Protein 1
Amino acid sequence: MFLSLGLTNVRRNLGRSMLAVIGAALAAMIMTSIIALSGGYPALGYAEARAFLGADILVFATPHLVAPGALAQVAGSDQPWSLVALSRDQYCDLHDLHPELYGQGFLAQGGVAARPIDLVKLRARLAGSRFVDDVSAAYFLPVRIQFSVPTEGGGSREVVLNEMILRGRDFGFRSGDGHWSFERLMVDGFVPAGCGDACALLDARLVNLGYPNLPALGDQIRLFVPALSLDDTGRVHLDYSRESEFQLTLAGRYEVQTNLVAWPTELGTMLEELYWTTPQIQVPAEFFSQVFSQASGGRHLLPPAMQVGVTVSPFSEVENIAAELRTLLPEYTVISVPAQLNLAHGRGLPEAVFQAPLEYLGVPTTQQVGMHVDLSQVFIVLVCLIAALLLAANMLFLVAQRRREIGVLKAIGARSGDIGLMILTEALTLNLLGTLAGFALIRIFATWTLLSNRIPLAEIGRATLTDLGLVVTAAASAAAVFGLIPAWQMARLTSMEVLRNE
Amino acid sequence: MSSRQPVTDLTPSAEAEPILRTVNLSKSYFLGETIYAVNDVSLAIEPKEFVVIVGPSGCGKTTLLSLLGGLDRPNSGEVLLEGQSYSRLSENGLAQLRRNHIGFVFQFFNLISHLSAMENVMLPMRFGRQPRRVIRDRAGELLDMVGLSQRANHLPLQMSGGEQQRVAIARALANSPAVILADEPTGNLDSKTKTEMAELFLRLNEDFAQTFVVVSHDEGFSRYAHRVIHMQDGQLAKVEAGGR
């Protein structure tokens, strides 16, 4: 009976109900916004880089990168330090993010040989972390490719691109996971039929690196891979005098937009879109495995992982997980992609800049990146508290207005529990309405942004449902607590106390 | 605290079982010093009786009424309804007692403003387990009894003070209570409506044998009462026969 009375109260007190709904909607809007922010709906640049790299955190099988001034901070080891440079044979994404390491080198502790990462062991070590979604290896080999391009006379000519990097990666052919799929990465192309297909993706903006002629979609590409062997440490040795040849189909093209630089001119504001352009030719991990096996003369089936990507969810946990990994894996180099991209943006890297004055990219620096500290949790808690206070005030207002009614109900025989149930029904109903309204309002804008960032609909739907669950649960809990406390206090008063004071 | 000896009113018959009885009932508040709102009051209300309690403001009439109705708990003494003491009843027990055995009529009507007259009358019955149709029929009968059947779907604010009070009386009658306690039921009404209200009380008392305890300044009620109890300083100062 008190349930229906609560609902009747909601319906009949439209003004009061609307006020409560608006209050709840405001709280829901605040919570939805902060959850969206904390959940990490990355900006265009980061979203694209994340899709390209396939991870939020990269773990490299290279020794620590240490600035000279930071040597003293690396304590507890008597291993000698030496200056080493990145090897072109051991290509990894660090080459794009820190090209200076080719020439300047870096200080490495102990043996300089890169140690391959045992993916199985690493996955087992990270299995307990609830924020780590996936651990996947990225494989690289220096290759050259050859393909035909049409000429003006109607014929064709062969084009050879040297110094290309074959990148084997898990494209996420796993059903239902569209996050790292071909579609997610491609700007045009088609989805190959199976995992083992000899298909590839090329950077659509290779022209920026001086490659004006690119194969058309569906064209055949000849891939030449140097013979390789592994030493006892797992290091790959390449023999360019002997090559193996493979046939590939160009399935699609990708591009990684990372920044949009604006600068004032006499003619108005100029804009330049910046892209992270790489000489990588991306193939599925299964195909890479075949290539590796054949190039090693059938001696090595599984290539050693020199770079591992860790995907983290939510986004706000990236820096925390990166810090944990640095402690957990002192023998490897762990970088967070957002932190590195921030640094890279400041230095005009890794994208090529053609027009924009460099000063608009930030101050170039060679200093080691300061550690990013994730304060988002503090803000989330603070903002959620503000939302809870709003709900509390809402509920207090709702109950305070009902003193006389509660007194009358008690006088004519309602029990305290009944009154609590009635108030709770009203509070939850109004809050649910308000929460849904507030959530929908904010979510429309968030969905627009996500769609603009080419996030797949399925993923948006999943995130929307998760966030809705969080917001509704938080709002309902706050409404229940802050509605019940004053209702319970009010219900404890005797009718006379209530009616006398009215 | 007054040194006057309290009047013990167990009239009219010490042999008949009273419907409502108090034994040495006291209620005090501490406002810098202890103030006795009700002080050692013993009285008995017989079934079908119409009792009016009169006295100056602050003499404890309303407090006594709230103790009789189980709206408040005494510091000492007992209230018994049909021989059953309130003192051992929990809050929920008291709520159930008020729901099933006592009807209240307040000076300011205390209707739920967003519920119609019909819904207000139905309210106490809806706390029980009767079918909604039965409740609605009963509420319709009660509104008809107080002459408001044509106003059943009106909200309290759409009705005059007298009409609101009649709805409140119908609500008080909803669960066929043993006794109706009315606190200044005409205090907020004009003189014509006051008379109509007093006559309604009289009719309900005569035709339906409804027991009434009415706190009122209004002389009109005393004319219809079986007994008039005068209170002063929280005690029964005088008991006299009413106008009937």
Note: Residues 2-39+376-501 of chain A form one domain.
Protein 2
Amino acid sequence: MSEANSDILVRAESLQMHFGKKQVLKGIDFAVRRGEIYGFIGPNGAGKTTTIRILSTLLTPTAGDLWVDGINVVEEPERIRRRIGYMPDYVGVYAGLTVREYLSFFAGAYRLWGAQRRSLLADVVELTELGKLLETEVQVLSKGMRQRLCLAQTLIHDPQLLILDEPASGLDPRARIEFRVLLRELRAMGKTVFLSSHILTELSPICDSVGIIEQGELVASGGVQEILNQLRGESVAYSVTLVPPAGAERVAADDNTNKEAATNDDTSDGAGGDDDATPTNGTEHVANLPVWERVVSDLERRPDIDAASVSDATLRFQYSGSEQRLHEVFAVLTGHRVSFCAVRRDEEDLESIFMRLTRGEVS
Amino acid sequence: MRMILGAAHRLFGNFGWPIAEKEARAQARRVRYFWLQLVYLVVLAVAVVIAVGSVSGSPESLSRQLFAVFFLMQNGLIFLIFPALAATSISAERADKSFDLVMTTDLRPSEIVWGKFLGILGNCCTFLLAALPLLAVCILFGGVSMSEALDNYLLLFVQAGLISMYGISVSAGSEGNLRAIVGTYVISLIVGAFSLVSFEDVLFSRSGQLSIIDAMLSEAAPADRPWVFGASVCAVVLVFAYSFVAAVQRLTPPEGNRSTPSRVLIGGGLTILLVAVLVYAIGGRGTVRFAGAEYSQMVFAFMVVFGLLSVFLLPIFAGDRVETPRRVDLFQRRHPRITLWSWLLQPGGIRGLAYALLWVMLICGTLVLLVSGDTVPRFPSFPKSAFPTTIELYLATFLLLGLAGVLNCALAFLLAACDIRGLLNWALVVAISLLLNVYPLVFVIGDHARQFLHGYPLSIIVVLRKAWYVRRGETSSEAIALFSQASLLYVCLTAGVTLLACVLMVRRKVPIFAVRSPARVPVKAA
């Protein structure tokens, strides 16, 4: 595999893992580019941690291969370890050691000595802001500080690839934000980050690519936008906020008045003098304006509109035509003298992708 | 030279110094460490004080008895306290997931084990050294030489080293702390009881020797003392090395869904056999005469227990030893230069060696029995002078059990090749083994038991010694008949099992005999 100088840092091919007769990974393929943050997501029991442990050389796959920087994880795990920094989902620390001793221990374990060791230690402490805690015993650190300490430990030998298993789990909102900032800094420093998480809102803003795994199979992999495009095909969802006509507002107000009257007087028919009024509430009444229904009907007749609906004074439609001809769609609205005040292109987020692609079943 | 240095570096590396430093520091900062040391010293002091009050006689005799009490107490305490330091050394870190971090560093499993060992041994040594003032009290009245004190202290250090290493080994092989603690203490109980009983016998015997090493050696004839000493050192080194290898193998990431204890235990079984051969080599010279029936019985019991372990325990772990194509593939990819005879070494390292030894032993055992089968009928009787000594009979019994263990392993291989694994594999192997031994068992338990108890090993020894004697004796004929039947069964079974296992492996596309070119994974364009 001649990927040492290529854009790809991690490549998995047909990765399989059996535990006894149970197949946990069913031949997954993915690639992670240098300098990107790759989010690996999936429900519990999908195979995330197994993949991460294989990548960290803690497990050997039953079949298939995995390369990091062109080096096969199966064939040369010792060389891989110089290139990776692994942070498990739960960080256990050694009781009885101070932060400085803890980091020194790992520096020694990576065979760093002398000036190189001191220099890297200082850099890592500065990056993770652990300077004030160097003489503190590790077992008294808070969860957030332990995460930082563990991250510092993974960075101590200046690895190319950081493998983080659920790094944000159990952190308070502030610590999460700080951790996210730290990850961005690392990306800016040229590190590649492979991380798994359940908290998809955490991943969305920082991940360049994601892999979604379920039941040991990778159901999607690539850039977030790329996956979105794959999922929705050519169509794009739009939302148009409609402005109800002045009369409609009045009718809605009258309707509410009538409703109150109907409650006070059982003999009242509650009609209120308007054929379109229904004894529910003003919003529903507005949504059922015949003119908007006609707009929807006209839009649905167009070949470039996949679906259209109106509710809560909002018109939603799926448009598969070119952006240059989008104005024709809005011409339908203006043709019916329907006013609107906002147009929004709806973006699917990572959570909606995840929910669409997975069913939460374990492998 | 470069190869030797390379091998030494590979085995020892930096001796896991960061681990040793961390281990010693973290252990010494625990409250438990100081409490244990306090208990250790208080118990020793109380024992010495009680001994001072209860012993009478000349100052020299008082000193010698105090020394004996002090040493015995210390010997007992280290088997109670030191396992606690070693038992959770790895399992505890594994439980809180901090061990994964160490496993992804540059440290090799061998360095991790060395580091743990040095760290724990360092802490154990502080216990032993802390008791030195009490030792000074014991030898205050004279009568105890410095060499005796040093000899016994050396023995304590060796025991501390052994406890540390097998504690680490058990800890590395255990999934939880509780298992690790129970496992370590079970071993300590057995070894400690053995050690205490024999040392107590020596220290309070009428010989008056206080040095355990000297007292043990005095049991053998002067000419054999170097041999006995060498054999003892070898046994200690082998147990130590076995524990070390077991721990290292357990820490090596498993390949695929395979676990490593099996290879370790096969290695262990072979080690036991090697020890037996070593001891037999000494005993076979016919000049060693161990004094005392108790000692002799103890040796016999020890050998029978280990022999039975090899018969009934080894197959459990041999059952999943059939190589998968993936393992073979990995081996050939990791060692592309090794192509010839790679089927013997798959997938290399200690296990490959164990494999090779296993097959060699199977072949040699077959050859020996073929030769003996030819020799025995021609010389059906022999004189009383050709009869082996008691110790030789015991050792031969042990060897025979070891041989049965190897055969059982072969059976387990066969069943594993048929995908019969786990408990069923073991149950079938043991059942077949027992069925094959029904006749000898009935024979031994029957009326002739008293007369022919040692008939089985007797025949082997006579054959191996190639005793060309003609005088007929009643005692030998039935034994030889029995032996002939057993050897025939063994030969047939070994050949059959080997053949069947090979056929099945070949059918499973495991290239055990066909050496193929090193496999490479097809490269896809990035």
Note: Residues 249-287 of chain A have pLDDT under 50 and may be disordered.
Protein 3
Amino acid sequence: MNADWLDLAPSTIHRGIQGATPLLLAATGELVAERAGLVNIGIEGMMLIGALAGAAAAWAGGSATAGLLAAAAAGALVGLLFALWTVGGARDQIVTGLAINLLALGATGVAAERIDATARAGSGEFVAPRFASLLAIDAARHPILHALLAHDAITWLALPLVVMTAVALRCTRPGLTLRAVGENPEAADTAGVRVAAARTFAAAFGGACAGAAGACLTLSISNRFQDGMTDGRGFVALALVIFGRWSAVRIALAALFFGGLEALQVTLQPRLGSRVHVLYPAMLALPYVLTLLALALRSGQARPPAGLAIPYRRG
Amino acid sequence: MRHAVRALGASMAAAAAGIAVLLAVAWLCGYPPAAVLRVFAQSVAGGADRLSATLLVACPLLLTGLGVCVAFRCGVWNIGAEGQYLVGALAACAVGIHLGTWPAWVAAPLTLLAGVVAGAIWAGLAAWLKLARRVQEVLSTILLNFVAIQLVAIMVHGPLADPLSAQRDTTSSIAAAARLPLLSSRHGLHAGVAIALLAAVGAWFFLRHTVPGLRLRIVGANPIAARLARLPVTGYTAGAFLLSGALAGLAGAVEIAGNSYYLTARYGAGYGYTAIAVAMLARLSPPAIVPAALFFAMLDTGVRGLQHADLEGAASFPTTLTFAAQGGVVLLVAWLAGPPKRTGET
């Protein structure tokens, strides 16, 4: 192990935490939705819409915070669309989620091209202002502190969000209501819980989280939108929920692990030498292979909410 | 009967809405709708070569759509047609390159068989994960899609790389003997289109008129009743996975052996995802998958035609519009189909 590799560790850790943030946000939203009995495959599309809405609002308003709020709002709106179909209409959740993914991929592509054209017509560029690091730490003098703490507002917001979600689900009355709706909607309904309202809220919350996760990609990790830039992150977030066995803390740890893998890819890519064309795709496949392996080894112990993916209709 | 008419009406309405959305967006983007419609029709069916281009897109959509249909009919949520299609193409390419000295009547079927087996194996992984390790196939098949994309990249840059290609990002072409015969050499229309139609007839006959087909549908419609009736639910579930993967793999192999002849590092065309829209629009009925595949193929060639057309309006026509139309059609079909029946409800 030479000094060169040691020098790379802090930047990899920094990038890993940054890369874990969108996964963590999206997975936390999915956790709440799944605890309420909704499987949202459309999380990938909601992230894409959040990424574009965030970039567009930040570009137009000149503020990254405005972008984040717009992204969460756009995600929540798509979440409500999902709820209209799956809760209000009791339609199949998987089909609805898939349709939302296709719709989002197409709609963001068309809209981004329009915004791009508008920006260029005003002799500008469609580039969003990025979030700045909240703590100014000199990376050269304190590399480890910088790697662990010099993060922007989205990353710092993600942490309390996970803690609050975990506490709310476990210890509060609304959290209990939500879980009851996911485990046994009939019983919850009999006990006077408004099942449809609870599930609709969960879908909107999941959408808002996915939207914010998308904003990470355009306001924190990079500063411009690209077609299909979520690149499967929504599906990885979906896997993290199962992998973390519907517990917020385990999900957070898993998200950090996957963020780290992503950071390692960036660090190692220029150092793969002549075999890069073969080794780099292998590295890109690794997170998915590991997810599959982890699911194969662990999912036997997991117990999903009993009412998961089953539409509930009164009557 | 009334149900069938209603289903047909719902699908027609959804398809019409898809076209309407496309026109509306084009209009919002500043393109004149009349010109858009004209160019669209021109690029879909204006002349024999345009028509055969549409049929060439419909062919893989038909095969992958049938695969999705068989799986969904058995209650297997195989979202992995894209990955199964890719490994099918990969295997067909790997085998087809080496069949130069073989007679065509062996080489071409062998190439297709390689794709069928590879697709079935890829789906079989998800089947094993579901049946032995209780991993939801919705997730495992999606994750396997991403693995398949990188597997193609690894093989194209590595073992299968064409030594003559400077970038080493394509494979060599498959042997002439391994290629599918052309129905019309001028338009590149290959025998795979006939194979796809035969597969549709076969899938219809299997699901509708055979005992295993009926049992597969029972397992999908009501697994509890199927178990009570002592049907081998596990066996049928595994069978549905394998059959659906085999059909998607065949689609990939047909595309290699009939259309492209070699692989590139970024080969996926998204047929495997469109296949789900095809199957949903057809309401999971094999005969209806033929027009549904044609419809989405039209959408694809039409929008690509618009992109290359010289329309008034500065920017190039957005091709991602195809995905939006697909998603819109699926959402609408899901809505119009009504909520699923409850067990015991007729």
Note: The mean pLDDT of chain A is 90.
